[in-house]
Amino acid sequence: MSNVTFGDYIRKRREEIELPLRKVAAYLDIDTSTLSKVERGERPASPDYLKPLSEILELDLKNVQTTYIADKISKDFGGLEHLSEGLKEAEKQIKSKKR
User: Fold this and answer.
1) Which of 32, 42, 53, 74 makes the best surface tag, with the fewest CB within 10 Å?
2) pLDDT band at 4 (very low <50, low <70, confident <90, very high)
């Protein structure tokens, strides 16, 4: 999945199973233009879309979330030189909140 944007990932799958953009957008209860922008990387996807996308596109939710998270981190923080250290610290913080 490396170097695959979230938009590319969902567009490729939608096309593989031959679902029209309008049907996926209707399932998500969003405009077709909004979903098109998400697929082109012009608009971020809402985390609320992840579970419904996994359902309609017949994808594992873990893979959908992983691709979404990786793309978001890459876009938002990919240019920072201390990204790896920041990710490690974020993981520690998340783990401590789960206790």
Assistant:
1) 42
2) confident
**DSSP string spanning 53-89?**
HHHHTT--HHHHHHHHHHHHHHHHHTT-TTHHHHHHH
- The answer on pLDDT for 29 being more than 60 is yes
Distances (CA, A) of 38 to 26, 49, 65, 75, 95: 14, 11, 15, 13, 30
CA distances for 84 relative to 45, 78, 87, 93, angstroms: 24, 10, 5, 14
Contact 39, 76 (CB under 8 A): no
**pTM score:** 0.88
String of b and e for 27-56 (b: at least 16 CB within 10 Å)?
bbebeeebbbebbeeeebbeeebbeebbeb
